[in-house]
Automatic annotation (TrEMBL):
Keywords per UniProt: Membrane, Transmembrane, Transmembrane helix
InterPro entries, per database record: 26kDa_periplasmic_antigen, SIMPL/DUF541, UCP029033
Lineage: Bacteria, Bacillati, Bacillota, Bacillota incertae sedis, Caldicellulosiruptorales
Keyword Amino-acid biosynthesis: no
Protein name as catalogued: SIMPL domain-containing protein
PANTHER family membership: SLR1258 PROTEIN
Taxonomic source organism: Caldicellulosiruptor acetigenus 6A
C-alpha cells in the first residue's frame, strides 16, 4: 500500500514539474511572438528625387612656361609671356581683376649623362606660372578655354586645363530636393501598404542620404556622394531613408 502511495506521489510531482515547465515556456514563446509582431509594425522605405541643373559659375586655369640656361634670363622670358597672356585675355573682354596669376614655380633641370643617369650639373631652368579666371559667364569662359591655345601662335608655351563648373545655389536646392525625396518615400510606402493590405499611419523618422551630382544620364554612384565639376549641365539626386508606422 505504501509502495502504491509513493508511486502516486511521484507521478503527481512529475506532472506538476511538466506543467510548470510548459507554462514558463509558453510565456517566453508568447512574449517572443509579441516582440516580433511589434517589430513588424514599421516599414522602412527609401525615397529619391532627381533634378537637372545648369552650372552658374566656372573656374578655369591656364599654364604657361619658359626654359633657359640662365635663371635670370628664364625669369625675363616668363615676364614677357605673362604680359602677352594678360593682353590676350584683356582683348577678349576679360576684366583685369578677374585674372589671377599664381606664384612662379622653378624647376631645375640637370644634365643627362650618356649612360642615362642624371648628373649634378645644372642644364637649365624651367619656370611655370598659372593664370586663373573665375566667372559667372559660363559660356564665354568655356569658349575661351578652347581658344586660348591661340597664345602658342604668339610665342607662349601655353596649356589650357579643363574648366571646372559649379552651382552656387546648391544649399537652397538641397532643401527642396530633400522635401521631394521625402514625398517620394511617402508615396512608395503607401503603394507597398496597399499591395499588402496594411495602412501607413505616420512618419517615425527620416535620415538624409548622400547627394549625387553627376553629368546627365550618368549611372555613377558613390557611398560618399559625388560632386561633378566636369560638366556644365548636371543632374542632382537626393536620397532619404524613412521609417513609417503601420497597422
Amino acid at each position: 500500500m505504501n509502495k502504491t502511495n509513493n508511486k502516486s506521489i511521484t507521478y503527481i510531482i512529475i506532472a506538476l514539474i511538466l506543467g510548470v515547465s510548459f507554462t514558463v515556456s509558453s510565456y517566453f514563446i508568447s512574449n517572443g511572438l509579441i516582440n516580433l509582431r511589434s517589430e513588424q509594425k514599421i516599414i522602412r522605405v527609401t525615397g529619391s528625387a532627381k533634378k537637372q541643373i545648369r552650372s552658374d559659375l566656372v573656374k578655369w586655369t591656364g599654364t604657361y612656361s619658359v626654359q633657359a640656361k640662365d635663371l635670370k634670363e628664364a625669369y625675363k622670358q616668363l615676364q614677357n609671356s605673362q604680359k602677352i597672356v594678360k593682353n590676350y585675355f584683356l582683348s577678349k573682354g576679360i576684366s583685369e581683376k578677374d585674372l589671377i596669376f599664381s606664384s612662379i614655380s622653378t624647376i631645375t633641370i640637370y644634365e643627362m649623362l650618356p649612360n642615362g643617369v642624371t648628373s649634378t650639373k645644372i642644364d637649365s631652368y624651367r619656370l611655370v606660372q598659372n593664370v586663373q579666371i573665375t566667372s559667372k559667364d559660363v559660356d564665354k569662359i568655356t569658349d575661351l578655354s578652347r581658344k586660348s591655345t591661340e597664345l602658342i601662335n604668339l610665342g607662349v608655351q601655353f596649356e589650357s586645363m579643363p574648366p571646372q563648373y559649379y552651382y552656387t545655389k546648391l544649399a537652397d536646392l538641397k532643401i527642396e530636393m530633400l522635401s521631394l525625396a521625402t514625398k517620394d518615400a511617402v508615396k512608395r510606402a503607401q503603394q507597398i501598404a496597399e499591395s499588402t493590405g496594411i495602412k501607413v499611419e505616420r512618419l517615425r523618422s527620416a535620415s538624409m542620404g548622400v547627394f549625387q551630382i553627376t553629368p546627365p544620364y550618368s549611372t555613377e554612384v558613390s557611398d560618399y556622394g559625388i560632386n561633378d565639376t566636369s560638366s556644365v549641365d548636371k543632374e542632382i539626386t537626393a536620397i532619404v531613408n524613412c521609417e513609417f508606422s503601420i497597422k
